[in-house]
Amino acid sequence: MTGLTLSSADLDPRRRRILFRCWHRGIREMDLVFGQFADNELPGLDEAELDELESIMAEEDNDLVKWILGTEPTPERLQTPLFQRIGSYKPDFEEIAERFGLTK
């Protein structure tokens, strides 16, 4: 769950770039969400979904984490089936923090 599992060898250049960006977001929580989503769904996305994914990834990570965790309401423009699918890859961050001794 903490790293790339999809090989980029069989992906076209656009999907390779997206895969890399999904696993290198800047905030580890978003790496896990977007990375797992990409590993599982990137090969099957059509061009319109790739466009939407790139648009979502252009949002600030600090905002994305709040929307995905539900600490702030998701803007209407992102209330789409694709964004919901991405959000379904949200790991249990509290469990991860406990497992690695990151809780107080």
Task: Give a short synopsis of this structure.
The chain is mostly helical and 104 residues long. The protein is built from 6 helices and no strands. Belongs to the SdhE FAD assembly factor family.
Characterize the main sheet.
Answer: none
Taken together, the total number of domains comes to 1
Question: Considering DSSP H and I runs of 4 or more, what fraction of the residues is helical?
Answer: 55-70%
Report the strand count.
0
Let me know the CATH homologous superfamily.
Flavinator of succinate dehydrogenase
- Give me the CATH architecture, please: Orthogonal Bundle
Based on Cα principal axes, name the global outline.
globular
Number of helices: 6
Distance between the termini: 23 Å
Order of helices and strands: HHHHHH
CATH class: Mainly Alpha
Which radius of gyration do the C-alpha atoms yield? 14 Å
Query: What name does the CATH topology carry?
Result: DNA polymerase, domain 1
The poorly predicted ranges are none
Structural class: mainly alpha
Arithmetic mean of pLDDT: 86
Q: What fraction strand?
A: under 5%
Keywords: Chaperone
Protein name: FAD assembly factor SdhE
InterPro entries: SDH, SDH_sf
Pfam family, one: Sdh5
Can you walk me through this structure?
This protein has 104 residues and is mainly alpha-helical. Helices cover 57% and strands 0% of the residues. The chain has helices at residues 13-23, 28-41, 47-57, 61-69, 81-87, 93-99. It comes from Rhizobium miluonense. Belongs to the SdhE FAD assembly factor family. InterPro entries: SDH, SDH_sf. Keywords: Chaperone.
